[in-house]
Design brief:
By secondary structure, the protein is mainly β. It folds into three domains: 32 residues; 65 residues, Beta Barrel (OB fold (Dihydrolipoamide Acetyltransferase, E2P)), CATH 2.40.50; 166 residues, no CATH class. Helices cover 14% and strands 41% of the residues. The protein has two helices and 19 strands. The longest helix is centred in the first third of the chain and has 38 residues.
Length: 291
């Protein structure tokens, strides 16, 4: 009888041990699969709220357990963050850190609208200055242009109530399709501050009637060789609802008769350039989807 009980105990503990082993193996395999699935999406993007924002319980993106107020923001729009970098601090002392490597894809103001503190600002201090900027858009990425599309540039002013056409402060100096890119040279005149942006669609008489509108949020970084990299956030009404992404274009300062003319980051004046094309956006043109 004792031998039987001993054998049963041995079998029992052996069974428990094997169950634990296989359960752990399955768990590890699941973790590996999740990590692999995450990695295949490439760049991870984060959304961040500005100082003074009150985030309701379980609000995106941090799923707070209670209503919190953002006390401090440690990042800028489109800045890179690594695992462990501080992103936000709440008034209760909680510090939010990045859980993945990635880029800050959106900033929101306290009222929930997108923040534009880091928009691209082309500032020409001399009223007599003329600054020519070349914008190169890869057709392979965006397909906004082709040989038959009717593309043009205009300046619009965005006030709080509506978007309407303002005085034309920029003119096209040159427009050409070069290989896989379309190149547009813009001339900025007078004492003005202009932001570069664009939208895709057919112009039907008003801005609101253009489809495939790109969200006017921007970031600009110097490449150190006289050219700049322009990042634009896009919003596409795809088959799965609203989807966001980031595109990258090259912006070069070609010439200026004002040696002090500079491209600076700053508070925008409300002007930005809209480039129209006869080709709409589609899902397969989205680059760098976030979550």
């Amino acid at each position: 009888m004792k031998k039987l009980l001993l054998i049963l105990l041995i079998v029992f503990f052996f069974a428990v041990g094997m169950f634990s082993y296989f359960a752990k193996t399955i768990e590890n395999n699941n973790i590996t699969k999740i990590q692999t699935d995450t990695q295949k999406f490439g760049k991870i993007e984060h959304s961040v709220y500005a100082e003074g924002t009150v985030l309701p319980t379980n609000s995106f993106p941090f799923r707070a357990e209670k209503d919190v107020t953002v006390e401090r923001v440690f990042v800028d729009l489109y800045s890179h963050v690594s695992v462990g970098d501080e992103i936000l601090k709440y008034t209760d002392g909680t510090v939010i850190k990045a859980e993945t490597d990635g880029y800050i894809s959106e900033l929101f103001t306290a009222d929930g609208s997108r923040a534009y503190e880091n928009d691209i600002l082309f500032s020409i201090s001399d009223p007599e200055a003329e600054l020519t900027v070349r914008v190169t858009v890869p057709i392979s990425e965006a397909n906004y242009f082709n040989e038959n599309s009717n593309a043009f540039i205009e300046v619009v002013k965005n006030n709080e109530e509506e978007i309407k056409t303002a005085k034309l402060n920029a003119t096209i100096k040159n427009y050409e399709v070069a290989g896989d890119n379309v190149i547009v040279d813009c001339v900025f005149e007078n004492d003005t501050e202009i932001l570069i942006g664009y939208t895709a669609g057919v112009k039907l008489g008003s801005f609101s009637e253009v489809y495939g509108t790109i969200v006017p949020t921007y970031a600009l970084t110097s490449n150190g060789d006289g050219s700049y990299t322009l990042f634009t956030a896009i919003e596409v009404d795809g088959t799965n609802g609203q989807r966001y992404g980031v595109r990258k274009h090259t912006v070069s300062v070609l010439e200026s008769n004002d040696s002090q003319a500079a491209i600076d980051m700053g508070v925008p004046s409300g002007y930005y350039i809209v480039v129209y094309s006869s080709r709409p956006l589609s899902d397969n043109q989205i680059v760098g989807l976030g979550y």
